[in-house]
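Here is the promised in-class demo. Please do not try to memorize the tokens; focus on the logic of going from shape to residues.
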């Protein structure tokens, strides 16, 4: 692999981190239980990414925010895979699942808000699931255009979409409103992704039709959202101070108790996993 870093173990390091890796390390052991996708959907998502990216043998796919490898573990030889993540703890969890040819898979601890540890014009697909909205969009656009292969490249972003009236969606919306009241603007994924696509479109990239890859029913209670947020060191994708985080969660607890008629009440809803893609044409 033509990379600007070297592999010395299952997880290599590159780049200087402006955000704290510990912010995510603490979630590594239970991340998939808290925020993971239904396992039966993951293979279908990976297959769809490969089809959209029109990736061939020996092409390079880079996943930004590889995490514990819930999706990345399904990308294997003959294509080459590089997984980038800020958290070494997350990547160490990933490496436990990695049983493919080590020559075709490389995990690198790196800050995606810094220069990506990739050579120019070598990547056919950049894939990211529920991560890109946490990054500086101008920087991501520059790096994508820098590393994009001259044979053409595809940027593919995956996100979970929930029914607006579902418990999780309403809890998340209220959480972001409470954060704003305390002077913190949570990062809304759809708005950030739209900005990234607009930035890349200015260089000739063309948006593809969104693709819903998987849908499933889920049962959730307000308490599950509250417990999830209590387990984090921040909120809304931001490193919110502990005192404010605790205050926001207390406010949400009171709101949810009244709004839903109890914190333990369970509600069923539908969720979907959607891929939105942008293709940069060949420059050869």
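The designed amino acids, position by position:
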């Amino acid at each position: 692999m033509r990379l600007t870093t070297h592999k010395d173990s299952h997880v290599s390091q590159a780049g200087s981190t402006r955000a704290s890796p510990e912010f995510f390390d603490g979630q590594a052991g239970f991340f998939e239980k808290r925020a993971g996708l239904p396992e039966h959907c993951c293979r279908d998502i990976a297959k769809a990414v490969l089809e959209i990216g029109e990736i061939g043998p020996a092409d390079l796919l880079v996943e930004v925010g590889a995490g514990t490898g819930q999706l990345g573990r399904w990308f294997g030889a003959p294509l080459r895979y590089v997984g980038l993540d800020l958290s070494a703890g997350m990547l160490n969890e990933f490496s436990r699942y990695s049983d493919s040819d080590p020559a075709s898979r490389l995990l690198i601890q790196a800050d995606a808000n810094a220069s990506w540890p990739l050579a120019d014009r070598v990547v056919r697909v950049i894939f990211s699931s529920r991560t890109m909205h946490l990054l500086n969009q101008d920087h991501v656009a520059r790096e994508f255009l820098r590393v994009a292969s001259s044979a053409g490249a595809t940027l593919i972003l995956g996100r979970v979409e929930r029914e607006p009236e579902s418990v999780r969606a309403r809890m998340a919306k209220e959480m972001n409103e409470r954060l704003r009241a305390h002077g913190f603007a949570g990062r809304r994924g759809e708005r950030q992704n739209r900005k990234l696509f607009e930035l890349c479109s200015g260089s000739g990239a063309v948006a593809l039709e969104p693709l819903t890859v998987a849908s499933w029913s889920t049962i959730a209670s307000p308490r599950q959202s509250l417990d999830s947020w209590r387990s984090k060191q921040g909120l809304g994708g931001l490193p919110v101070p502990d005192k404010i985080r605790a205050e926001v969660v207390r406010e949400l607890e009171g709101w949810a108790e009244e709004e839903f008629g109890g914190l333990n009440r369970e509600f069923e809803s539908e969720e979907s996993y959607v891929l939105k893609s942008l293709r940069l044409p060949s420059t050869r």
